[in-house]
Amino acid sequence: MKYKKGYKYKLAEDFIYEFNTPIEVDDIMASYITMEKGAVLIWKGYAWDGASGPAIDTDTFMRGSLVHDALYQLMREGHLDISYRDWADRELRAVCLEDGMSRIRAWWVYWVLRLFGEFAAKEGRKIWEI
Length: 130
Description:
This protein has four helices and six strands; from the N terminus they run ββββββαααα. By secondary structure, the protein is of the alpha+beta class. The strands form two sheets. The chain has a four-stranded antiparallel sheet with strand order 2-5-4-3, with helices on one face. The protein has a two-stranded antiparallel ribbon with strand order 1-6. Helix 1 runs antiparallel to helix 2 and helix 2 (about 85-100) packs antiparallel against helix 3 (about 105-115).
């Protein structure tokens, strides 16, 4: 028997997200993700795990977790420099606030990522094995 471990969600259609803050990067094409100046396209079929750790999946967390997981994947794969990690964490917080998350929870999510998220963004790190 074969199965894929670790992912709870899979995009049913392509998703485009335009960034809240400007970022200067060359165009990036990776598996299920395309990024260009000002936007990221996450393709249909992309799988992610939603909120990580003790956080729970809510409507106010889903879009942010999708964008954030894609950005961290780009860092792990070496397409995006890890120096953009704080920007990705701030972008998650901004998306969650846009989607109605409380300011206190969004602050908590951001700071937990700042303290414990680096391992998930390090280049070459494998999050899930098949």
